[in-house]
Structure formats: C-alpha cells, structure tokens
Design a protein that fits this description.
The chain is of the alpha+beta class. It has a domain of about 55 residues. It has two helices and three strands. Strands 1-3-2 form a three-stranded antiparallel β-sheet, with no helix packed on it. Helix 1 runs antiparallel to helix 2. The longest helix is centred in the last third of the chain and has 10 residues. It is elongated and about 50 Å long. The termini are far apart. The model has no long low-confidence stretch (mean pLDDT about 80).
C-alpha cells in the first residue's frame, strides 16, 4: 500500500537522492512558470543510477513577457514571470 501525504519538499539546487524504499511524484514546475518566488526556469533530470539533479537557470524573462503581450494574452501572465508566482 502506498502512503499518501500532502507534504511538499523543495530541494535545493543540485543533486538529490530519494531515500531507499520511498516513492515520490516529482514535478519541478513548468520551465518558465515557477510558483516559488524564484523567476529562473526550473527543471530536473532523473538518472536511475545517480538520482535527481535539480537546476535553476536564468532566461530572457523580458523578451518572454513582450511575446506574451504581443499575442494578446492577459498582462498578469507576463508580470508573474518576473516574480516567480
């Protein structure tokens, strides 16, 4: 039986290993849609031998905001990219 919890763990950037006999649902967020206050793009790479590597990288937020506005999407979608919320 799988124990379900409602806990959220945000690992620091870098290497992270899942403790033995644990299972996890990993969702590092959308590459450009973080919700944790850090506007950098977030992604994770999983290697069955080495574990997880979590990355945050800068990207052209201003350029992305301009494109959002240019195609007529709501302004708040552009604004939120800069604050990571």
């Amino acid at each position: 039986m799988i124990q379900v919890t409602n806990e959220m763990f945000i690992p620091p950037e870098g290497h992270w290993e899942l403790p033995e006999r644990f299972r996890a649902i990993i969702n590092p967020g959308g590459v450009g849609q973080p919700r944790d206050g850090d506007p950098r793009a977030a992604f994770m790479i999983y290697d069955t031998e080495a574990g997880f590597e979590f990355y945050r990288v800068p990207y052209a937020i201003e350029q992305t905001q301009e494109k959002i506005v240019e195609v007529g999407l709501p302004q708040y979608l552009a604004v939120r990219l800069a604050v990571g919320r």
